[in-house]
Amino acid sequence: MSRKEKTKLLTDAGAAISVKVLSLKKGLIEYNDVQFVRIVNKNNNLIIMKDYLPIIGEIIGDVEIERINTTVKLEKIIGYYIHKHNEFKLFIKEEEND
Q1: Residue 66 contacts by C-beta under 8 Å, 6 or more apart in sequence?
Q2: Which ranges in 1-98 belong to alpha helices (H)?
Q3: Cα dihedral value 92, 20, 32, 51, nearest 10
């Protein structure tokens, strides 16, 4: 299945997650058209989709926010996240690029 077909399938299904990213460097950034969030941690990988169970955790690694038309990549970060009621919140403590 091509990326375009996957995007159409997820969009038609109404797969939308609200994402809020807070960092001291960039402030608060919000995304409302997110299909899923991919967390690549040093110990595990996780994909959070619509109606995923509530979860909280720490990130030491990368996060990809897959939107309808684009992908936002946050690489080499340290932070904390919480996901509940289709709302994903990420607080970036620091970035290794600083």
Answers
A1: 34, 35, 36, 37, 38
A2: 3-12
A3: 100
**Percent of the chain, pLDDT > 70?**
82
Closest CA to 77 of 35, 30, 24, 31: 24
Which amino acid, 84? K
Closest to 43 in 3D by CA, of 29, 60, 30, 66: 60
* Separation CA 8–CA 88 (nearest Å): 22
- pLDDT given at position 25: 87
* Greatest distance between any 2 Cα atoms in the chain: 39
Q: Is 5 helix (H, G, I), strand (E, B) or coil?
A: helix
